Give the backbone structure.
Amino acid sequence: MTTPSVSLERPSYSEEDHQTWAALWKRQLPLAHQCACTLFLEGIEKLALDTERLPDPAVVSEHIYKLTNWTLGDAQNEYLGPTEWFEHIAERRFPVTNYIRRPHELEFTPLPDLFHEYFGHLAFFTDPEFADIAQLFGPLYLSAVDERQQLDIARLWWHTTEFGLIRENGDLRVFGAGLLSSIGEMQHALKPETPKLEFDIRVAAATPSAPYGYHEKYFIINSLDHLRQIVYDYAEMEGLPRPELP
Ligand SMILES: [Fe+2]
């Protein structure tokens, strides 16, 4: 089976880049075992990345394609525009960067680097249920009729897949990739004094993202089903078509 339409080049990385990648894994994986949700911990095993050497995107893309029919796309090393982003998502293509943070940025980097993409996000895309729910955000966003709805939907994605928490057996576990890939922000989010709110669509949609610093509050979902329901409920509240998988 060959992965469709992937043009992902692997830059030549320096030895220092590989060491940064390895150092991030060494720091973050033990913490993830304490704090991350089951979906992540099972997914990271299935992803089976080399923790010592930076990944080859084409190889990882093919691996994920075999598991859930998602592929990787090229994020061109910066934040894509939201419409372009959700066009990728609607096509079951997850855009990734190919840049690795500098050694002094181990705790936090404002740009989504390779560690954020591969460690934070890709474990989830090994799960067929998550993979289908994530895709629903594509048609939901693309059906929006104005900029307010577009911003709402982008924030619903942000406050779940990037910075969300999930309830498991009565405990809070980390769900969002932005938290999983940032030691600094994960610890900040889990402090008892940091506000954590039950997910409310209107409140989350009115809460700006904070891509260049830590968030002031975080939102809790109860399950993957809850995430799917958020997509359906938003469509219903706004009179948009219920998003379907093609
Ligand atoms: Fe991300």
The pocket of fe (ii) ion is lined by residues 112, 116, 121, 162, 177-178 (CB under 6 Å). Confidence is low (pLDDT under 50) at residues 1-6. Residues 15-237 form a domain with the Phenylalanine Hydroxylase fold (CATH 1.10.800.10).
